[in-house]
Amino acid sequence: MPCKRNGFSLIEVMVSLVILVIGLIGIFNLHIMSKQGSFESFQQTQASYFANDIINRMRLNVSELSNYGSSSGTHYSGESLTKPTECSGVYRCSNTELRAWDLYEWQSAFIGDSEVDSDGSIGGLPTPTACVYVNSNDVVIVMTWKSVRKFNGTNENYSDEVKSCDSSGATRRIFEVKTAIF
Length: 182
What we know:
Elements: H1 10-60, H2 65-68, E1 74-76, H3 95-111, E2 116-117, E3 120-121, E4 129-135, E5 138-146, H4 160-163, E6 172-180
Antiparallel strand pairs: 1-4, 2-3, 4-5, 5-6
Helix pairs in contact: 1-3
């Protein structure tokens, strides 16, 4: 007489566990990729904010527009950051003093000096470079920074401004804004 089986055999349990583990590994990898994508999206939003910040500052100080950048581009990073002494941004400033203050505030924001902890700057973009191109009333702002993931493409389809603004590298991300200021 055949024996009646009640329950699962050890082989069935092991196969079920292998399938469950493979599924969980996939879910964990998806979670990691989702976190990286979310972080890169946040960085893109920050770059957009910083680019629009300097554009708005330039619109408020149109008489100094050509001194914010140049037609060949002016590169900004944290290395050349010095606080202006003549004007603190609170008192009435000349247009030249206001431009120096605007550039100082903008640079300190995108390198993260406005948010610090015991280890140093934590805000801003990682290893950022910003370039300002001013040609008459046309303004181009390029923000580049280091990303957590490698970029599989090239920058050959980008504008000349992007190509000349420290945009090469496998992990460099780029944000570019073109506008006119009158």
